[in-house]
Amino acid sequence: MSPRRAAALRDGDDRTLREHLITTAERMISEGGTAGLTVRGIAREAGVADGVLYNHFADKEELLALAFRAHVRSVEGALDPLPRAGSGTVAANLRAFVAYGLALHRAILPAMAGLIGRPEVLARFAAAGESGEDWRDRLLAYLRAERDLGRLAPDARVDEAAAMVVGVCHEAVLSLLFSGAEPERDVDGLVAALLDGIGP
After folding, report:
1. Which residues bind DNA (predicted)?
2. pLDDT (tens digit, 9 = 90+) per residue, 85-106?
3. Torsion of CA 71, 65, 102, 130, to 10 degrees
4. What's this model's pTM, rounded to 2 decimal places?
């Protein structure tokens, strides 16, 4: 049996009610973050009764996790594409990965701030992702591919290099969150330090 269409959906809208609710919550997160976001508010914005959400999601946390995942995908869609292994120079490509990571983390910070005290939502957010689709996964795959191509040392510790880049981006977000200012970041210096350790 196909999913039931909702009266809240306009004619010509092929989404299911579940998709409509995720899209509505994602839009609300994009516009106002996650702090104070309620089931009642999402239902009202979606044009459905409050209890309808529980027909399509186990609980509010599942809906928030899926909506936050959709928000991250939306933010990523507006960023420049990441470089492919074997193209350009490794240094320029790493700079692009760092810039992408910093821009992504900056953009999702307002939504993330309201979830800091909601570990169950963040755990479901992590579980909702496909393996290899997150920025960190793509960075690690890129580094492994460059190692396989011989553009990095054969014994390059790419897992640790990826963790360093991710850590720099997380530090920037935490600094913004707690002090309201992002630290000065020497991206060229970071890339040089990485390549001194993993370059051929």
Report:
1. 38-57
2. 999 999 999 999 999 999 998 8
3. -90
4. 0.82
